[in-house]
Design goal:
single chain; elongated; alpha+beta; 291 residues
Length: 291
């Protein structure tokens, strides 16, 4: 059964990829657009039906009826399947019937795809549906017994933006005390204005295994601070977070070092994030905070 299941997943993923690479769809090609969403959001477990229905303005609803009541483990499998297709759902799941005026704090569905000829860039398509009244974020996923409903913007999978992960040009800025992981590129640099404290923030991108980057900063911080702590593990499942400026799912590790001297606490905190999906998993975002 597992072999058949893997073949089904591979076929669905192939259909999704072919539709995705076909590029933007004409507004009049509604049937093609619906098929794209069906291919993208079909779950790995048995279903009775999957349909795409109009919603508010140009948005739509992907409605999935399953053969059994949806439980937590099924949602974990669904999230993993979507990540395999380059899709991540960021935001709280609502348990209950769909409500077009139900709002949440933040919600985004993000899809990525590789860029031919540019290994260090990805194309991104995002969806953030708003409530009918009040223009607030709608939960990205509704679960109601045997029904899954996913609100999606009309241009999701049609409109793309390019993200360069490893920039050719870097901000002009000094290095942190913790140094730079070999081969990493500086993406952002923030130094507080006069009178705003002394915290410095640097954000790098590295094409490297998460465990290697972690080990590098553990070693470096132990040379700088007498107290070093580590939280997170490369094997942990990805969780919702920000990565390279987009909302997605990523694995996260924090390495922190502390030194108390002359009644002053000096610190270096390094947060490492690795994308959960195949299009971002080769890269690690490195955020260094220090005073």
């Amino acid at each position: 059964m597992s072999g058949i299941h893997n073949i089904q997943r591979a076929v669905i993923a192939l259909l999704f990829l072919l539709t995705c690479l076909a590029g933007p769809l004409s507004p009049v090609a509604r049937a093609q657009g619906d098929q794209f969403l069906v291919s993208a959001f079909t779950p790995p477990f048995p279903i009775k039906s999957i349909d795409v229905e109009p919603f508010n303005r140009n948005d739509c609803l992907v409605k999935i009826v399953t053969q059994q009541i949806i439980k937590g483990g099924m949602l974990d499998d669904y999230s993993s399947t979507l990540l395999f297709r380059g899709i991540s759902i960021y935001g709280a799941t609502f348990y209950g019937p769909f409500d077009g005026n139900r709002s949440t704090v933040d919600a985004t569905i993000t899809m990525t795809r590789k860029v031919a000829g540019n290994a260090d860039a990805v194309d991104i398509s995002t969806s953030a549906v708003k409530t009918i009244v009040g223009d607030r974020p709608v939960p990205p996923l509704f679960v109601n017994e045997k029904e899954l409903i996913i609100p999606v913007e009309g241009d999701f999978g049609r409109k793309w933006q390019r993200l360069t992960i490893m920039p050719d040009r870097e901000p002009v800025h000094g290095e942190s005390k913790a140094g730079r992981y070999p081969g990493a590129r500086l993406r952002q640099a923030e130094t507080p204005a006069e009178g705003q404290g002394d915290r410095k923030r640097l954000v790098y991108a590295a094409r490297a295994p998460l465990a290697d980057v972690r080990d590098y900063y553990v070693k470096t911080l132990k040379e700088l601070h007498p107290i070093v702590t580590t939280a997170g593990n490369p094997a942990d499942p990805p969780t919702p977070t920000g990565l390279f400026g987009i909302r997605t799912l990523a694995r996260q590790i924090t390495v922190a070092g502390y030194t108390y001297s002359n009644r002053v606490m000096y610190y270096t905190e390094v947060t490492l994030k690795q994308g959960g999906g195949p299009n971002l998993s080769d890269y690690v975002e490195i955020e260094v905070l220090e005073n």
